[in-house]
Write a structure and sequence with these properties.
CATH architecture: 2-Layer Sandwich
Shape: globular
Largest sheet: 4 strands, antiparallel
Distance between the termini: 5 Å
CATH topology: Alpha-Beta Plaits
Bound molecules: copper (II) ion
Helix content: 25-40%
Number of strands: 4
Strand content: 25-35%
Strand order of the largest sheet: 2-3-1-4
Order of helices and strands: EHEEHE
Length: about 70
Amino acid sequence: MLKLKVPTMTCGHCAGVITKAIRSVDVGAKVNVDLKTQTLTIDANSDDRAFTQALEVAGYPATISATQ
Ligand SMILES: [Cu+2]
């Protein structure tokens, strides 16, 4: 499980774009968005960097707050 902090994620539109970006890396990824804490939780088998890179490209730079 990967937990990301995405400071620019502020609304449902952002959440949709971000979810799409994550699924473009791993179509089977389980994505959970918490807008209140601007936190993204990803349950997938792909490389963490692949997700942060996809988010960067989508315009939502993220920082890794936890891996497990
Ligand atoms: Cu938004």
